[in-house]
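Hello forum,

I keep getting stuck at the same step: I have a sequence, I want structure tokens, and every attempt I make locally crashes halfway through. Rather than fight my setup again tonight, could one of you with a working pipeline run this one for me? It's a single chain of 181 residues.
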Amino acid sequence: MGMKGGTHSLLMDKGGFQFTQNIDEATEMSMLSPSRNIIFIDGGRQKRRGTVNPVDAPDGGLLQGMLPYTKLDGTEYLMGVTDIGNVYDLVTGTAKGTFTATANPVSGVVFQNTAYITSSEVVPKKSTGGAFAALTQIPTDWGTKGPRQFLVRRAGNANRLVGIGVPGHEDEIYYSKANSD
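Reply #2:
Ran it on my machine without issues. Output:
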């Protein structure tokens, strides 16, 4: 089965991050420190001009994490988790379940057509487009916690979900079985 995705190219020969820090020599494309907070629009690069709040959480809470999620059939979601503990598709405002209220950032990853969200305070959850449900096959030493972040490891035919940063086990790396969570 093919993998859906995209490739992005950055024009480092025009601008880059290797310019002299002498402001008198700066060109329009120079990215002088601390101006590395940039946006990529229409194939070009621009310095950011302020902060934009593209979406509001339907429950009025603060967004603790967002995850763009495109299924293999082309259905697109923008999942958001709030500090109140709700998960939403921010495009439609549809509730997608609950996530224990957290003051820590929530991260997410898409692995094999499934969206996973996690925070170090709670057990991770997953969704294939419907409501988010807690993972059931987790290491016993996680208890009621979860990894700070999930990563995807791709090595030939053995794709694995990788969990890092579990409280109390920060020096350990957790791998799923091949091609499963």
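The CA atoms of residues 159 and 179 lie 5 Å apart. If your local run keeps crashing, start a new thread with the error log.
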